[in-house]
Amino acid sequence: MLDLNFFLNPSGGLGVLLILAIAFVLGTLHGLTPDEHTWPITFSYSIGSYSTRGGMKAGFMFSAGFTIQRSILTALAFSGLAAIYIKYNLDGYVYLMVGVGMFLAGYYLLRGTNIHFPLDRLFGGKLHHSTRSERIPMGEVEDSIKPIPLKVATVHGFIAGWGFGAYSSIIAFVLAPQMPNVYYAFLVGTFFGAGTMVMQIIIGAAFANIMRVKKLKPEQIMHVGRSSAARTLYLGGIAFAVLGILIVFFPVIDSIAIGTGSPIYNLNSIGIATILVILVVGVIGFGNLFKSYREIVKRNISETRDTV
After folding, report:
1. Closest Cα to residue 35, out of 168, 152, 153, 227?
2. pLDDT in tens, 66-114
3. How far apart are the C-alpha atoms of 17 and 186, rounded to whole Å?
4. Distance of CA 25 to the CA centre of its chain
5. Residue 172: DSSP 8-state
6. Calpha distance 158→146 (Å, rounded)
7. Calculated CA dihedral for residues 218, 220, 222, 226, nearest 10 degrees
8. Dihedral sign of CA atoms 205, 211, 214, 218 in order
9. What is the three-class DSSP state of 147?
10. Any alpha helices (H) in the chain, and if so which ranges?
């Protein structure tokens, strides 16, 4: 009977169908566990979708780009070109590229809104208040936060896929080379991406419905979702970029980790990747959800007092 260790530490001499099955299972574990290449981006776009269907679509769109990249990666691995990862640490550059993409998406969404960030002045931020009255926040005059562009999530998925971790090493250096030709090797990444996609769709739906437990009105959920997603992309992008730059100049940072004793990759240690997930999803993401929710509550209280 197959156990988890069989999938986490596959051996050589495996058949094609078994390799593809292992790749799919590894993909589901990769999508389920808190990974810095998946969770922060899926979270950002899912909460901006503010619905089960939208969250599932966000998870699908991100994973589609990720699956394409992983398919290319395993094809390259069969050809021996993926060995570049053995010689060079590309994580810093991937973090930087993902961070720039997140930041630009967040900045695009935040332009002209009532969201106050001291940094936005440095990037040509627009006025925080309407011209009708300097005491009326722009968001109370017009909710100008743009819809979250899910197509960009696909681009982010493709870029983030170039990051390398334990799961990537298994599919690239253990499974793909055992395939009979490069076309079958391509399928290893496809099945791995499909497994990741299944879990990211589920997680995306869960993230998108976080604010529904507060029983807000549909338009309020939309506002909370969009503003939180925009803020998370904006600040999360800065976090990704800064960490990426640090790793580029100080690669040793990427190898610092504390073991947890768990056999499951992404849960077996606490390192820079874990900190990045906690920072972007836990601190920035949920922090902005709470901030946006408080804004809605205060606005409701103010409107109630005005009608009394």
Report:
1. 168
2. 999 999 999 999 988 777 877 778 889 999 999 999 999 888 888 744 4
3. 14
4. 20
5. I
6. 23
7. -170
8. negative
9. coil
10. 4-8, 16-32, 39-49, 52-79, 84-87, 91-110, 138-141, 150-160, 166-170, 182-208, 218-249, 272-277, 286-307
Report the alpha-carbon distance of residue 179 to residue 277 in Å, rounded.
33
Is-contact 81 236, C-beta < 8 A? Answer: no
CA separation, residue 215 to residues 37, 219, 228 (Å): 31, 11, 17
Contact 55, 204 (CB under 8 A): yes
Which pLDDT belongs to residue 124?
A: 42
Residue 116 CB neighbours (<10 A): 9
pTM of the model: 0.81
- CA geometry: angle 190, 195, 200, nearest 5 deg: 115
C-beta of residue 207 within 8 angstroms of C-beta of residue 62: no
C-beta atoms surrounding 206 within 10 Å: 15
Statement: residue 1 has pLDDT above 70: no
Q: Could you give the angle at which helices 150-160 and 39-49 cross, rounded to 10 degrees?
A: 170
Q: Are 266 and 166 spatial neighbours (Cβ–Cβ below 8 Å)? A: yes
SS3 173: helix
> What pLDDT score was predicted for residue 228?
86
Q: Which of 53, 302, 26 is nearest to 202 (CA)?
A: 53
Which residues neighbour 200 within 8 Å (Cβ) at sequence distance 6 or greater? 31, 38, 42, 59, 60, 62, 63
Cβ neighbours of residue 162 closer than 8 Å, sequence gap 6 or more: 69, 73, 90, 94
